[in-house]
Amino acid sequence: VYFSMEATSRFVYLLDRYFQNEATDVERTELSLLIDSGEYDAELKEKIEAYLGADKGRRDVSAEEAKSALEKILPAKQAKVIALEDTSRSNLRWGWVAAAAMVVASVSIGWFMIGREGDILNAPIAQQQAQRIEASVFSGKQFIRLPDGSTVLLNEDSELSFADTFGGESRQVILKGEAYFDVAHDPSRPFIIKTRNVTTTVLGTAFNVKAYEDDSEVKVTVTRGKVQVANERKTLGTITPDQQIAVNTATNAFVQTNLKAATETVWVDSALILNDVNMAQAATLIEDKFKAKIIFAREDLKECRITAAFLNGESLDQVMKVVSAVVLVEYTVQKDGIVKLDGKGCKNSN
Predict the structure, then answer these.
(1) Of 47, 169, 327, 348, which has the fewest Cβ atoms less than 10 A away?
(2) Burial 230-254 (b: 16+ CB within 10 A, else e)
């Protein structure tokens, strides 16, 4: 098995595949990660200009035109957007190109973050009528890094939303469905999850919340740290690792039990999450996942960093293709099954 292609040519190839609606899930992810590297703004700009019918070198494209063009590259139904003003990532004067480079990677989808109005989160009715609060909404199986450094692995048929004030004086999210949270510790700002009539509050820990609309119960299971669970009237209990509280949403009756948290988080273990790790750490995680052996031709390749989420049972070959594209390396699988990484790598990408 061998994967190698000159990086710019590979990027253009993947863009063309995307425009022709022929890109596979892995190719879409690879494209998203290449955009995220910030190395291909010029090529992306050229393609968007082509969509707009612009003359070569045109720089007066409006924000609306740019947004429309970006939605053609990644359709609106697959995009959520956050407005950017800072263009310091690039010498180009296209702020929206810099925005396009901010991609969150998921194997099944690449999300462009663009701003929009959303539901009003957790405000009194009178206040809701008086103002609209911008919100970010994520749905479907994906890995999310929140502004405070916390991470969320969202399961199928689930939705996570939070106001644009998240990370200020408070950290509050609304969950529909199931998610695994790994919360950054911050004693001054409790992390609060609203699920139907149940509120889960933590300072910094890891736990699973299952709260599908069709389920009669909301279940909170702790794998690390301490979690407080409450309904609309009172605190129900505080649980620690390998404990669960299940709340009946119709009657508010609840049960606290001891159990193996791993039995409730099997769906999490099926994912491979590389959360801003260096390649040495990534190699260890990949080795553990696939019972493989990865070696490096050069020590400096171990220092390259990567963020990616593989959520859909991807093979070792699919994972290595994406990883190779991100850190600009080539990989080969030797006769003994060992995966060898070589190439110029991130340190020599300029």
Answers:
(1) 169
(2) bbeeeebeebebbbbbbbebeeeeb
Task: Indicate the SS3 state at residue 30.
Answer: helix
pLDDT at 233: 87
Helices (H), the chain: 7-19, 25-36, 41-52, 63-73, 95-100, 125-130, 261-264, 266-269, 279-290, 316-327
Note the residue count of the chain: 350
pLDDT at 126: 37
Q: What is the DSSP string of 48-63?
A: HHHHHTPPTT-----H
> Which amino acid is residue 122, in one-letter code?
N
Q: Within a 10 A sphere around the Cβ of 43, how many other Cβ atoms? A: 15
Say which residues have a Cβ less than 8 Å from residue 10's Cβ, sequence separation at least 6.
34, 325
Model pLDDT for residues 192-201, shown as the tens digit of each residue: 999 988 999 9
**Residue in the structure block whose two tokens are 């910094």:** 204
Pairing mode, if any, of strands 339-342 and 294-296? parallel
Please state, in angstroms and rounded to a whole number, the distance separating the CA atoms of residues 325 and 143. Answer: 19
Structure confidence at residue 103 (pLDDT):
30
Cα(107)–Cα(157) distance, integer angstroms: 17
- Average pLDDT of 227-239? 93
Is the pLDDT assigned to residue 117 strictly greater than 60? no
Is the pTM above the cut of 0.70?
no
Q: How many Å is the Cα radius of gyration of the chain? A: 22
For β-strands 191-195 and 171-182, DSSP reports them as parallel
Average pLDDT over residues 15-31: 72
| φ, ψ dihedrals at 219, nearest 5° | -115, 130
